[in-house]
Amino acid sequence: MTAQVQVLISRPPGEPQSLDGFARTVAYRLAAVPGLKVTLVPHLYDLAPDGPAMQYLRGLQTDLVVLAALYPRAAFWVLDACGVRGRLGRTPSLAEEETLETLTGPHRQGPTPQRTLWCFDLRAYFDPELLVQEVLVAIGRGGLPVAAEKGTSGSQTGPAAEAAWHEIAEVTSSRWYPVIDFQQCNDCLECLNFCLFGVYGVDKADRPKVEHPEACRPGCPACARICPAGAIMFPQHGDPAIAGDPHAARQALRLDLSQVLRGLGPAELAALERARALNADPPAAPPAEPQPPQPPPSDSLSGASAPLVDLDTLVDDVDKLDL
Ligand code: SF4
Ligand code: SF4
Fold first, then answer.
1. Which residue segment(s) compose the domain that 144 sits in?
2. Measured in angstroms, how far is the CA atom of residue 290 from the centroid of ligand 1?
3. pLDDT tens digits for 107-162?
4. Ligand with an atom nearest the CA of residue 188
5. Residues 117 and 184 in one domain
């Protein structure tokens, strides 16, 4: 009997109800393969840790194929943070040394299943057939004929395939929070000390954990820049090195930024981003007392806001850099 493998297809970010033609084709093809069960969920990164989709995934013990618009490393650690664990399986976009053995240790609460998670970045493929074949090769089913259309021979088709296509409805909204790669993390806790918003905490083993993800300031990637191990990812950030691309040259990025931004190093840049996050969300001010009319400010007084303008411009420039 063929072992069952769950295929998780994550909808594109911001499109909780839609499934484009590419993903639909992949879902249909894989649902038609014996032993594969396809499940559709909203965008993986936006799922609530205790929502129905993550609860369902935590209940699975089978091997898992994850198809999401995320770098594989980011998808793996997003799931790991929510208790969906295993080892990262080999796929064409991962080097041998990037696959992870099952992580065990005092920071892992509860048993870690001895199973494999193969993570594929949907954005890296233009041909759905290529993705389907690479999935089949990864899980050891390479060469298996896949039905091209309903009614063709070779695999389950029609009602049998559609019965294997399972959808989990969950209302989501766009989220922004750090994801830790514990294979890289050295437990220095610099992230905990750096963040002013209480996002990080420590677990029973004194390892960092993202304790209050919703406290993270949208768009702020500051702690990813100060992490000495490159262990912090923001999967939705425009810079691949911060979003979890293992091939992006984080060190080169730092060097380039230092040169471009008036000699700023990553620590200074992170401090600027943190300061902007602070300024972007000031505490509510008490109602102002009525004041007599004031003369317009002189040039010298109005210049007091210049550093903030420069700060915003500087950080925006960094975000726009396509390095
Ligand atoms: S700063 Fe990076 S390496 Fe240090 S504890 Fe935080 S995630 Fe781990
Ligand atoms: S990105 Fe900024 S707000 Fe979010 S956890 Fe890091 S330092 Fe804190």
1. 5-167
2. 49
3. 555 566 688 999 999 999 999 999 999 999 999 876 665 554 443 334 455 555 55
4. 1
5. no
